[in-house]
Amino acid sequence: MSRGAWNGGLAALAAVLVLSAAFFLGGAAPANPQEPNQSGPNQTSSASVPEQEKDIASLSAFVTPEDTAGTATAAFEQEPSAAREQGPAAQTPAVQPDAQEQPSLVPPDSEPEAKAWQCTLSISCATILDNLDALPEEKKDLVPSDGLLLAPVTVDLTEGESVFDLLRRLTRDQGIHMEFSNTPVYNSAYIEGIGNLYEFDCGSLSGWVYRVNGTFPNYGCSSFQLRDGDVVEWLYSCDLGKDVGGSNFWP
Amino acid sequence: MRGGALGFHPAINLVYFALVLGFTMFFLHPACLAVSLLGGWSFALCLRGRRALRLALRGMLPLLVFTAVLNPAFNHAGMTVLTYLPSGNPLTLESVYYGLAAAALLCGALGWFYCINCVMTSDQFVCLFGRAFPALGLMLSMALHLVPGLFERLRQVSAARRHLGRPRAKGILAQMREGVKVCSIVVTWSLEGAIETADAMKGRGYGLPGRTSFSLYRFTRRDGTALAVLALLGGVVAAAGWRGAFDWRYFPAVQGGGASLYQAGALLAYFCLSLLPVLVLAREGWIWHRLQWRT
Q1: pLDDT tens string for chain B (295 positions)?
Q2: Residue A100 falls within a domain, yes or no?
Q3: CB contact under 8 A, B180 and A5
Q4: Which residue of A has its CA nearest to B251?
Q5: Is residue A198 part of a domain?
Q6: Distance between CA atoms of B227 and B276, rounded to whole angstroms?
Q7: Rounded to a whole number, what is the distance in Å from the CA of B91 to chain A's nearest CA?
Q8: Residue in A172, A180, A196 nearest the CB of B79
Q9: Do A198 and B77 touch (CB under 8 A)?
């Protein structure tokens, strides 16, 4: 009987070990096929680290400031179709891949010819002003009267910076609270709250989304590489993006 | 003196612990948490002395620190950003405060439960519920006895095996094998014991209609006085809590209701309620001391 109990215990231990190993390795493994693919255009599936860095490198090598506008629109043209294919189910507000791997920070003056790229960022929660009764009492003081947590500021861009990197840098500089979470399966970070205004604070359909040059990119903000002149807006939506003009979410 | 502790009727004990545990869980005001922590563990110290002190220092203090540290590691809400954690999320003052409050709440409640375990013996439960809810009373008494009973049996089984000539096993593998075997024996024994207890109680006609149950407890005038005091103090505290005297907000910014005379009075009532058993024990000790001096 003791041998039986011992063998049973050993088998259970082995099963636990295998499961835990699978759990931890699963985080790094390619995205689960059942999950909606939310990675960016330059990484259709399971972007491994070196591959993406190669992409960044090639982008920065080929894109000169003169033809930035052309490539930017090219990048944009890929997403609306993707958005339609995925439908509203894939649209959790603001999903942003990979916060961990910072692109290698090359000083901007490493290319002597190019002038520094610039980018504009603003953070707005104006939609809450229309839905104040849905907001908990203690959070009402957090909403500015004009809804702007951060008025549009233009800053120099570090090379290879993504929308997420820019948001993190600016919120730190300006002393604005910001919380995000990383989900290894999506290879992505997710903005949970800015300025203590969290997702679901203003109704069950509320959360943060971002818009670049008037379009809502259909993938995480970490995989969106910024280019010169990009205008980034972080918007709080109380209705899954409908109320901030995210009509491309809804076919 | 120890078993009955204060010598009150079980109903008084039950009401008292229900009151203090409820207040501990519902009032997150820092002063309330401090009062509860103080009351629970001073009562435990009076009941068990050095054993409770050892438990408090070795078990509760690390737990307190652990809980207080754990919260800011996962909770990043709050207006006051102190610094940034390696994960990239902010460490906020509010989350630190809330971690401390949660730790105090946990340790306070554990202290009161420790006292419940010392004071409320199983015969008190059977006395309380035996007539109206016989099954509930028996189940409560058996469930509360389960863990201490397991430890007692564990001790007996390992002692028996040691004296049967099985020395302390060498090597991790052999120790694990021994441990699994002892656990198997203890669990089997406990399950069998539970069935036998239930059978024995049934065999004696426990819970049959028209059957009285004997208990040592009488509701005396002293119990009536205690109930009145509990009702008064508990009513004051509960009313104050209902009207928001103990409101305290941790997120997004720490905000209290503002001190007032009313709040101070309610807090004093809560303080008295929490320290009531200690006061009663001290008074009895003093009377005993004085009587000894006279003779």
Answers
A1: 333 567 899 999 999 999 999 999 999 999 999 999 999 999 999 999 999 999 999 999 999 999 999 999 999 999 999 999 998 899 999 999 999 999 999 999 999 999 998 898 888 888 888 778 888 888 888 887 888 889 899 999 988 988 887 767 678 888 888 889 999 999 999 999 999 998 998 898 887 887 777 788 889 999 999 999 999 999 999 999 999 889 899 988 888 877 888 899 999 999 999 999 999 999 888 988 999 887 6
A2: no
A3: yes
A4: A138
A5: yes
A6: 12
A7: 10
A8: A196
A9: yes
Query: Would residue A34 count as lying in a domain?
Result: no
In B, minimum Cα distance to A1 occurs at: B181
Which among B199, B264, B225, B157 is positioned nearest to B12, based on CA atoms?
B225
Asked if the Cβ–Cβ distance from B89 to A5 is below 8 Å, we say no
Number of domains in chain A: 1
Which amino acid is present at B12?
A: I
DSSP string across B12-80:
HHHHHHHHHHHHHHH---HHHHHHHHHHHHHHHHHHHTHHHHHHIIIIIHHHHHHHHHHHHHH----S-
CB within 8 Å of A196: residues ≥ 6 apart: A139, A142, A177, B77, B78, B79, B251, B252
Q: What is the CATH number of the domain that holds A150?
A: 2.170.130.30
Distance from the Cα of A177 to chain B's closest Cα (Å) equals: 7
Cα–Cα dist A235/A147, whole Å: 10
How far, in Å, are A149, B76, B77, B78, B103 from residue B82 at the CA level?
20, 11, 12, 10, 20
Query: What is the interface pTM, i.e. ipTM, of the complex?
Result: 0.70
Minimum-distance CB partner of A99 among B79, B88, B249: B88
Nearest neighbour of A179 by CB, restricted to B76, B79, B249: B76
A positions 3-32 inside 8 Å of B (CB): 5-6, 9
* Helical residues (DSSP H) of A63-189, grouped into ranges: 68-77, 79-86, 126-130, 163-174
B156–chain A Cβ distance below 8 A for any pair: no
Q: Do B90 and A179 touch (CB under 8 A)?
A: yes
A164/B135 Cα distance (integer angstroms): 60
How far apart, in whole angstroms, are the C-alpha atoms of residue A178 and residue A173?
A: 12
Does A215 map to a domain?
yes
Instruction: Show the domain range for A235.
Output: 117-244
Q: Mutual orientation of helices B10-26 and B221-242 as an angle, nearest 10°?
A: 10
